[in-house]
Amino acid sequence: MPNELSIGEVAERTGLSVHALRFYERENLLLAPVRRTAGGRRAYTEQDVDWLAICTRLRDSGMPLADLRAFAALVREGPGNEEQRLALLRGHRNRVQAQLAELRSCLDLITWKVGVYEQRVAEGTATGVWDPTAGGDAAARG
Questions:
Q1: Residue among 105, 108, 67 nearest 89 (CA)
Q2: What residue stretches are annotated with the HTH merR-type domain (predicted)?
Q3: For residue 28, what are the domain limits?
Q4: Alpha carbon separation from 125 to 104, 114, 117, 134, 136 (Å, rounded)
Q5: Which of 51, 60, 102, 104 has its CA 20 to 30 A from that of 35?
C-alpha cells in the first residue's frame, strides 16, 4: 500500500521510541488499529503520524494518560461528542495555565536571585552570600 510507514520510520518522524509506539498502541491511544503487512509488520499512515504528534504534545504538557485515552476514544467515536472533547481540552488547558503561573512565580524568584548574585559579584561583596556562619539576616545576604 502506498504511503505506509514502518514503525522505525514513525519513530524517527515523531521522536518516539519504538517501545513508546507499541505502548501507545497497547493503550488504545491511536485512532485506528495499526494495519499489519503480509509479513506481520506494523504499517502506519500519515494520519497516524499526525495523531501521534497531537498525543505527544498533550502528554508533554502533562495530560494524564487516562484523559488522553478518553480523548482518543471520543475522537474515534466520530461526530456528536465535541462538547465532551472540548471539556477535556479545557480542563487540560486550565491545568497547563496553572502550571505556567507557578513556573512564572519560580522564574521571578530565580531572576531576582540572579540579580542579587550579579550585583554582589560585580561589587565584590559575594563572599558570605547564604553563608549560615556569617550571622545576620539571610535575606539581606542574598
A1: 67
A2: 4-74
A3: 1-78
A4: 29, 14, 9, 13, 15
A5: 60
> pTM of the entire structure?
0.79
The whole-number pLDDT of residue 125 equals 86
- Chosen domain end from 57, 78, 99: 78
**What pLDDT does residue 130 have?**
77
User: Which grid coordinates are listed for 117?
Assistant: 548574585
CA dist., res. 4 & res. 6, Å (int): 7
Asked whether residue 30 falls in the same domain as residue 63, the answer is yes
Sole residue written with cell 494495519: 35
What is the signed CA dihedral for 87, 93, 94, 97, rounded to 10 degrees?
Answer: -170
Domain tally, the chain: 2
CA atoms within 13 A on the CB side of 92: 21
Query: What's the CA dihedral at 103, 109, 110, 113 to 10 degrees?
Result: 180
39, 62: one domain: yes
